[in-house]
Amino acid sequence: MTKKSEEIHHAYYGNDIIGQSTFPTCYRCHNEICHSPINWIKNPNNPVWGNRNTDEFITRLRLGYQLLYGGIKHF
Question: Which of 25, 40, 59, 60 could bond to 29 as cystine, CB 3.0-4.6 Å?
C-alpha cells in the first residue's frame, strides 16, 4: 500500500464496486500477492468467472481500502 496503483484487482467477478470487490493495486502486489496460491482460488469448472480470492483475503483488502480512503470526502 505504498506504491502508485497501476492495476485494478477483482477479488471476484461480476460486481465491480471499488473497495468491495475491486481494489487498486500496484503491478507487483497484483501478481504476487492478490493472485498468490494462498490468496487466490482457481475454479476448474469456470476458470474465468469462477476464480476468486479467499474470504479472508477479501476482508484484508476491504480493511486496507477503508484505512486508506475511509476519511476522504468526495465532492
Answer: 25
